[in-house]
Amino acid sequence: MQSAAFTLSSPSCPSLPLLKPRSSRPLINPRFDPISIRASSSSSLKRQDLDTPHNNVVFPRRSWSLSSASSSPSLLRPWNPLVSDRETERFQVKATAVPESAGESEKSSSMIKTLELGLLFGLWYLFNIYFNIYNKQVLKVFPNPVTITLAQFAVGTVLVTLMWTFNLYKRPKITLAQLAAILPLAFVHTLGNLFTNMSLGKVAVSFTHTIKAMEPFFSVILSAMFLGEMPTIWVVGSLVPIMGGVALASATEASFNWAGFWSAMASNLTNQSRNVLSKKVMVKKEDSIDNITLFSIITIMSFFLLTPVALIMEGVKFTPAYLQSAGLNVKEVYIRSLLAALCFHAYQQVSYMILQRVSPVTHSVGNCVKRVVVIVSSVLFFRTPVSPINSLGTGIALAGVFLYSRVKRIKPKPKTA
């Protein structure tokens, strides 16, 4: 029977004598003619006949792979289905291999994105720590918060202009309608940073950031008033430890004064007003711009808004002659002011970059951790006296902020009719 299979695959054979005789009965032994078994559409072979062990000696696909090299087209036609099956199997093997390589590339890209996000969070915290340290050092010897805030916006304006000039970031095309919509955001952004500097100049850095932990309270109130977003019972419950912790820390704060306290509270109000306005104003997709571009435009507008205010309220006091007359080291004040301004712009820029990569809830959790890091680092650097009760109040307030950021994702159940 093996000689018959060899005769079929030989290209020199003019005819196929073994295929001519046809029996009226179906072939019982599949070894006799495997081709007719494959080719016949009306075969009556039973399943157990095909599964018998003696069928293992027949390799029809091997014989057709040999005959595929033949030059006779007539020998290729009947077995095209076999070749197609083989090609289909090859295609299926390749198709199963592609997702594996794609999965590996997805894993590597996901790991790279995670590392980038971790680096951004680290820079966010680092820039914020150095901003608070340098800013506090300058405000101690130069208690003019409006001028200091103006200098920080001026440095940010220069950085934004350089980025747009050298195409480090795409220069936006802004219409007058967009500028009119952004103007209220720039106004409250200016006030928020000004009030923060006023508080930092009056009280300890740790106490300012403890009061600023009250931001969720203002966010809930303003969102309910202007956006109609009613808080869940879980959100309201998370505000209790925040308010209690801030009250406990304020009652035991060694550097407490009302000017620093109300300045920090005003900073909370204006910063959360900016967030609410950004949700209310930037609603049209065709008019929307990305967060970094929005921050850049707000920085420039804040500089122009604050310039006349600084000249009226504090005059021109940042000159070398004035600093020398006040007995200050001009070079040291300028360097620390510049470093504070660079860190100020950098940490806000990185914050917006993180916000583009993560959800607002994740960003809120990161902001809570950032506040803890800033408070601890400022206490260690400035050796701020902290009582156990004060530490307890700060810890309770920060725990409430963390709880708030977690329960924000709980959506209220829809009311059934």
Automatic annotation (TrEMBL):
Residues 116-405 form the Sugar phosphate transporter domain. Residues 1-33 are annotated as: Disordered. It holds the Pfam family TPT. It comes from Ricinus communis (Castor bean). This is Triose phosphate/phosphate translocator, non-green plastid, chloroplast, putative. Coiled coil: none annotated. The chain crosses the membrane at residues 117-134, 146-169, 176-196, 216-236, 292-313, 389-407. Residues 8-27 have a biased composition (Low complexity).
